[in-house]
Structure formats: structure tokens, C-alpha cells
Write a structure and sequence with these properties.
There is one protein chain. By secondary structure, the protein is of the alpha/beta class. The protein is built from ten helices and eleven strands. Strands 2-8-7-6-5-3-4 form a seven-stranded mixed beta sheet, with helices on both faces. Helix 1 packs antiparallel against helix 7, helix 2 packs parallel to helix 7 and helix 8 packs parallel to helix 10. The longest helix has 24 residues. Bound molecules: 4'-deoxy-4'-aminopyridoxal-5'-phosphate. 4'-deoxy-4'-aminopyridoxal-5'-phosphate binds next to helix 3.
């Protein structure tokens, strides 16, 4: 029975993050990068003076903001940083989605959007992805309280080109449009270039994927100085010191090392293309992968059973029970060696299943 005092408690159904097993497994379930961050990150962590931790960090994280501004060719007033893009996006929902009209995001997308909308009591509607899992942009050309979508989308891995993104922004001039580019480095050009033309656009990115720093928790939003000002006002009304000293210092080093960054991204893309080729040979089908993961199903194999069978062999991938996607597995691109282990297992497994069905 519900206690009287429970009546006014803000209750939410939380987001469920992927599992972080505390033993070595072939970990392809949370879209982490299998390689270490830039060498400068390791160096700065070793050289860090723990005595500095006695002081509060710079609340503006100016050094990191400046480094990102230089990297993206924008002004520092156009950059906001937070504790992973989850923190940045949560702040964006709080700040910009404050209308009575529903915000719009796809039915199959990053499942945290729904959770933030529920948490902040933001009405929302979820236009269905097409059968090929592409976003139908015309579904978003109507009155709404704001728009958010990832590009590439997750978990489908599908990237839409900048004409598509521009159409979305152009048709929604009276609301804020957020493009969540957590995986854009593995796909194509960022929408940051569109900021010169559109004041209502926000682009978010993360250090967790291409920059190999999921454990450090750094994300950012790039937008017009006006929107960044609003975002900072909300942040300073919530927690002034979101960024700790360690993440500011190491984040700067990660952004500085462009060569390392580009080399890592290319390496992962090469492994992705190899894995995609092998999966196709085995009969798997999937939307064109544009991120560091592949969203695949096999016409003759049950998604839930395959997920369980992989798990039993300590190969972790991500699986959802939602009706539309329960046959699919989201497979993060790990090292070449990890992907070879996965493919070897899938070869044996699909061979055995063929025998069983004979
Ligand atoms: N957006 C999308 C689409 C994601 O898949 C993720 C990763 N779970 C995030 C944002 C958040 O990543 P982080 O908080 O690590 O930056």
C-alpha cells in the first residue's frame, strides 16, 4: 500500500545502463572504445598534483571550453561542457523543453530521452521510424515543443546527411532542435557547420566513444551564445561544479591530439567494415552501420536466444525486448581480435542451428 507521504514523491522509471561485468568478458555491449585514450591523457594523470584537489575546480572549465572552441572553430561562448553528454542532454531537456506542446523524438532511439521527459514532466510524442529504420523527417514538420534525435541514430547506427538535418532545423524555427552526435565521428560531417545559419540548433557530442574516455564522463553542447547562456543559467542553478579538475585537465589533452583521434576512429571503422562483411556472409542483415556498433538480426535465428547464447560464452552485446527490435542485437565494434572471437562463435552457432532445423 502506498504511504501518504509517498503521494507527492517524484517517481520515475529510470534508464537502465548496459551491464558493466566485473570480470573479463568480450565486452561489446555499451559502445565503449576498445583502445586507450590519447597518450597525453595518461601523462597528465600521472603528473597531476593531488594538492590541487584542495581547491574547487574552475566552474567555467575555461581551458576545456577554449580547447573545444578551437577544435570546432566556434567561439568559447558557444561551448557548454558537462559530465558526459547524458548530463549535457539532461540540462538541455530541463532548459529548452518547457512547452505545453509535446517534444518529438523517434520511437526507436536513445532510451534516455523518454526518461528525462518523464522526469521533468515534459509531454512527448514518438513518430515511428520507417520500416527501414530511417527517420521520416516530414513527421517532425508540425507544431511541437522541441525536437531531439541522435545522428547517427542509436541503436540503429543509421546516419542522415546534413541536408536532412538542415531540413529538420529549417522546418522547426520556433523550437529548439537538438542533434545528439554521440557517434558522429564514425559516420560523417557534424551539424556544427549549420550553427552559423540556425540559432535554434544545439549539437551535443561526447568524449565517451571516439575519444575513449567513457570513464572520465565528459560531454559538450555547441550552439549559439544565446542558447549556451540559457544552459549555463540552468547549470549554475543546479550545480556550479559539474566538471572536476581531473576531467578538465585530461579532456584538454584528448582534444589536443588530433592525429591520435583520427587514427583511432579509422581503426574502428576498418574493424567495423570487416565485421559487417563477415556478418553478411553469415546471413545477418542490418541497416548501414554509421557508428561504432552494428544493429543486426538473422532471419533464421531468434534474437533473445542468440543474445543468451553469446552471454553464456562471455560475449556481451546489447538486446532489447521491445517488439519492433527484439530480433536485433546491438554489437559494439571492439578490437579486431574481439570481433574475430564473435564471428567464430556465430559461425559455429549458426551452423549448429542449421543442423537442428534439418
Ligand atoms: N547519446 C547517445 C545516442 C548515446 O548512445 C549515449 C551513450 N549511452 C549518450 C548520448 C551518452 O553518452 P555519455 O553520457 O557517455 O556522453
Amino acid at each position: 500500500m502506498m504511504k501518504t507521504f509517498e503521494k507527492n514523491i517524484r517517481r520515475v522509471t529510470p534508464y537502465v545502463p548496459g551491464e558493466q561485468p566485473q570480470r573479463p568478458v568480450v565486452k561489446l555491449n555499451t559502445n565503449e572504445n576498445p583502445y586507450p585514450p590519447a597518450p597525453g591523457v595518461e601523462k597528465v594523470l600521472h603528473e597531476m598534483d593531488a594538492g590541487q584537489l584542495r581547491l574547487y575546480p574552475d566552474p567555467t572549465a575555461a581551458s576545456l571550453v577554449q580547447e573545444l572552441a578551437a577544435y570546432y572553430h566556434v567561439k568559447p561562448e558557444q561551448v557548454f561542457v558537462g559530465v558526459g553528454s547524458d548530463d549535457v542532454l539532461a540540462m538541455c531537456f530541463l532548459t529548452f523543453f518547457n512547452s505545453e506542446k509535446p517534444i518529438l523524438f523517434p520511437d526507436i532511439t536513445y532510451s534516455f530521452y523518454k526518461v528525462w521527459a518523464d522526469l521533468y514532466r515534459i509531454p512527448y510524442e514518438c513518430p515511428k521510424l520507417q520500416d527501414d529504420f530511417r527517420i521520416c523527417k516530414e513527421d517532425y514538420y508540425r507544431e511541437n515543443g522541441g525536437v531531439i534525435f541522435p545522428n547517427p541514430n542509436a541503436p540503429t547506427s543509421l546516419y542522415e546527411n546534413l541536408d536532412f538535418v538542415e531540413d529538420m532545423v529549417k522546418h522547426n524555427p520556433d523550437v529548439i532542435v537538438i542533434v545528439d552526435e554521440a557517434y558522429v565521428d564514425f559516420a560523417g560531417p557534424s551539424a556544427i557547420g549549420l550553427l552559423e545559419k540556425y540559432e535554434n540548433l544545439i549539437v551535443t557530442q561526447t568524449f565517451s566513444k571516439a575519444r575513449s574516455m567513457a570513464g572520465m564522463r565528459i560531454g559538450c553542447a555547441i550552439a549559439s551564445p544565446l542558447l549556451i547562456q540559457y544552459l549555463n543559467d540552468a547549470k549554475y542553478s543546479f550545480n556550479s561544479y559539474t566538471m572536476n579538475q581531473t576531467s578538465i585537465l585530461s579532456g584538454v589533452e584528448a582534444v589536443k591530439d588530433k592525429d591520435y583521434f583520427n587514427a583511432q576512429v579509422q581503426k574502428i571503422v576498418r574493424t567495423r567494415e570487416w565485421t559487417a562483411g563477415e556478418l553478411r556472409k553469415l546471413g545477418f542483415v542490418f541497416p548501414e552501420p554509421g557508428a561504432n556498433f552494428i544493429f543486426a538480426k538473422h532471419p533464421d535465428l531468434d534474437g533473445t536466444e542468440l543474445y543468451e547464447a553469446l552471454r553464456e560464452k562471455d560475449i556481451f552485446v546489447r538486446h532489447w525486448e521491445d517488439e519492433r527490435i527484439r530480433q536485433y542485437l546491438r554489437i559494439t565494434i571492439g578490437t579486431q581480435e574481439q570481433m574475430e572471437t564473435l564471428i567464430a562463435f556465430l559461425k559455429t552457432y549458426s551452423g549448429l542451428k542449421k543442423e537442428e532445423n534439418r
